[in-house]
Design brief:
Layout (H helix, E strand, L loop, with lengths): L3 H11 L2 H14 L16 E3 L2 E3 L3 E3 L10 H6 L4 E7 L12 E4 L4 E4 L8 H10 L9 E5 L8 H12 L5 E5 L14 H18 L6 E6 L5 H13 L4 E4 L20 E4 H17 L6 E4 L5 H10 L1 E6 L1 H6 L2 H16 L5 H4 L10
Parallel strand pairs: 3-4, 3-13, 4-7, 7-8, 8-9, 9-10, 10-12, 12-13
Antiparallel strand pairs: 1-2, 5-6, 6-11
The chain binds flavin mononucleotide.
The site of flavin mononucleotide (FMN) has 28 residues, from strand 4, strand 6, strand 11 and helix 10.
């Protein structure tokens, strides 16, 4: 089947990155199934985390479909799960444009979107409209904070109240670098108040089925902060951690002229730091808490490295910008081969393998 994304990429590349993203999202939503590069599920990568079944461990990271506009189409591309959002309680426009930059030579992206969101009620309506078609995998919703919020636990709680009925997973985003003060909420006492508010709100929002609650952390935390968060997560029985969000660091190796733009860097240069943080978090939590590995994944080898470092599930975003949706099918086929070559019958067997002596 022709790879339509590669046909359109030269046109999209002429446009401002945010406009190109909007067009790609609309095209994805409108595309009939046969246009998409991979529609079925080959099998062999099924995994169960938090008692939830995933057809494969590769998910779409937050930020791509912020307002839940193309959710069903994103599963058709082959993702095992999709994270929509970040969603804020009230609509907000985010930072002035331009605020999204492609660093082509570095296979990277810098964004300073500033959590632009149509707000929780609009996103809930979008999700409720799609409810007729059951999604083939768990849906995660990324919870963000309004720029002018004065009581973060109350805002996150209210968000959970509105969105929990539609989600299998709620991710508390306290790590976007583009909302002033947000990352300070990773401080254990502040974080615990937010987690408790989200837990309580999602329990009251739905009677029977409670969503999994994850916390997404920054790759820019210092070692003490990482140790504190890991200790808190184990002690307080967090469901899981998402490692990691974008970084404000700028590796010296960046070659693109846009490398000096302010914002969060994602894509290939984030692979090393986010994977090394993932490894550290897995060790500090003794593998007791499922981790979602995200940052710089653009191949099956990258996904496999995250799994062996401790990720039960993997997400990506930036690589889609460069490679298009055909990448997902390729990653899955290659990942199956890599697991098989090392003698792993399932994804779960490989999770954290590098920490166990004698395993690959
Ligand atoms: C344009 C853009 C918007 C993003 N928005 C969010 C967001 O709203 N919430 C969040 O937790 N992460 C957000 N992210 C971070 C991604 O979910 C992911 O953690 C990061 O990009 C690293 O993955 P990647 O290297 O595969 O892109 C965003 C990333 C990009 C590029």
């Amino acid at each position: 089947m022709p790879d339509f994304y590669q046909w359109f990429k030269p046109v999209l590349w002429q446009l401002d990155a945010e406009r190109a993203h909007g067009l790609a999202l609309s095209a994805l939503r409108a595309a009939p199934g046969w246009c998409l590069p991979f529609a079925g599920e080959e099998g062999g990568l099924e995994t169960t985390v938090w008692g939830r079944a995933f057809s494969n461990p590769i998910g779409l990271a937050a930020g791509f479909d912020k307002h839940a506009q193309a959710t069903a189409a994103l599963y058709r591309v082959g993702f095992g799960f999709v994270e929509i959002g970040g969603v804020t309680l009230h609509a907000q426009s985010g930072n002035p444009k331009p605020r999204l930059f492609r660093l082509t030579r570095d296979r990277a992206v810098i964004n300073r979107m500033g959590l632009n969101s149509e707000g929780s009620n609009v996103v809930a309506q979008n999700l409720s409209r799609q409810r007729g078609t059951p999604l083939p995998g768990p849906l995660a919703v990324n919870l963000g904070l309004n720029k002018d919020a004065t009581d973060p636990p109350s805002d996150y709680g209210a968000l959970a109240q509105v969105l929990a009925p539609y989600a299998e997973i709620l991710t508390i985003n306290v790590s976007s670098p583009n909302t002033p003060g947000l990352r300070a909420l990773q401080d254990p006492s502040k974080l615990m108040a937010i987690v408790n508010a989200v837990r309580e709100a999602s329990e009251t929002a739905i009677d029977t089925r409670h969503p999994t609650i994850l916390v997404k952390i920054s790759p820019d935390l210092d070692a003490t902060d990482v140790a504190d968060i890991c200790q808190l997560a184990v002690r307080e029985g967090f469901d899981g951690l998402v490692v990691s969000n974008t970084t404000v660091a700028r590796p010296r190796t960046l070659q693109s002229p846009q490398g000096g733009e302010v914002g969060g860097l994602s894509g290939q240069p984030l692979f090393e730091p986010s994977t090394s943080l993932l490894r550290d978090v897995y060790m500090r939590t003794s593998g007791k808490i499922p981790l979602v590995g995200v940052g710089g994944v653009s191949s099956a080898a990258n996904a496999y490295e995250k799994i062996k470092a401790g990720a039960s599930l993997v997400q990506l975003y930036s690589a889609l910008v460069f490679e298009g949706p055909a990448l997902i099918g390729e990653i899955k086929a290659d990942l199956k081969r890599l697991l098989g070559a090392d003698g792993f019958a399932t994804v779960a067997e490989a999770v954290g393998a590098e920490h166990r002596a004698g395993e690959s």
